[in-house]
Amino acid sequence: MPRPKQKLPRPTAKTVKQGDDVVAVNDAGEHVARVVEVRKDQVKLRWFYKPEDVVYGRQVWHGSKELFGQTRVSDWNSVHSVTGFCKVHTLEEYEDLDDVSGHDYFCRQAYDPHTGGFVPDVVPLFCLCETPYNPDRPMVECEDCGEVFHCECVAIESNKIPSRYRCESCRLRSAPSKPGVQRTTGETHAELAPAKRGRQAKTLTKTGRKRIRKDPNAPKRSLTAYNFFVRDYRKKYLADRSPAATASVIEVTRACGKAWNLLGAKEREPFEAKARVDKEKYLKAKEEYIANGKRDEFIKGRLEDREEGSKSPKAFYSGEVIVHPPG
């Protein structure tokens, strides 16, 4: 199948330089990478992952132009494998673009193929569906409480977003009391959302959200059986290749996934045993962490941070689970 023509000039050994974002071809197909080093007709590339390449696959909150970075592995490739230039922005830079072209991408997290983890491993959640922000999905903001919602989640057509919007919770709180029932002072809507009243609703073009900090004293999560398998299989996979052959990170990750799927229950047992031991260590460390009061101290500080910001999210996504603040 012929490759589509690139609008930007084709890179050469003279035009490619360190720090460029490029589209290049490897054994796994065409992917985006960042140039780490250039030597004559060779370029050292650090590949970006597509959502389809990570352990959880593409999710509803992944943008169509979203990529995941990585910092561990890079490999040498011929400069002729580079087919075009592109640009990988931060999420904030991507939202500020007046016109998103086919060469524009964004990255908000890095992916570690060895552990299956993400950095940062916590991102804000929004809307009733409590999912991370996706710039491709139109959102509307409540003028009273400041919460933002996906248009489809609140039955609003994306091409008919109202100039003013109030969420259902705010409408119920401000509804007149029933006859014979008197509101207490703390239940008045003016006190529930004093700083948000009168602000016009708008579509979300910038997150404007304060990232939640991670507790450095919290114990590190235990590894899964798959994580232990990848550690062993990756070394074996690279050792079996000829010294002259190169393997991209994406190629190795896919090979690990295929090999893992072919294993039976008996073959997986050694890795499952390692995972059980590691989980026991994690649970023990977690109990000590909670017993020492460090978790309560961190949660208290986190809730204080939420009260200081006007747009703090309700929950946070850690890559595996949705974490809700207590209360």
TrEMBL record:
Entry keywords, A to Z: DNA-binding, Metal-binding, Nucleus, Zinc, Zinc-finger
Keyword ATP-binding: no
DNA-binding region boundaries: 219-290
Record domain BAH: where: 14-122
GO cellular component: nucleus
SMART domains, A to Z: BAH (SM00439), HMG (SM00398)
Recorded GO MF terms: chromatin binding; DNA binding; zinc ion binding
Region of interest (Disordered), residue spans: 193-217
UniProt domain PHD-type: residue ranges: 124-173
Ranges of residues in domain HMG box: 219-290
Name by which UniProt lists this protein: BAH domain-containing protein
Species this protein is from: Chloropicon primus
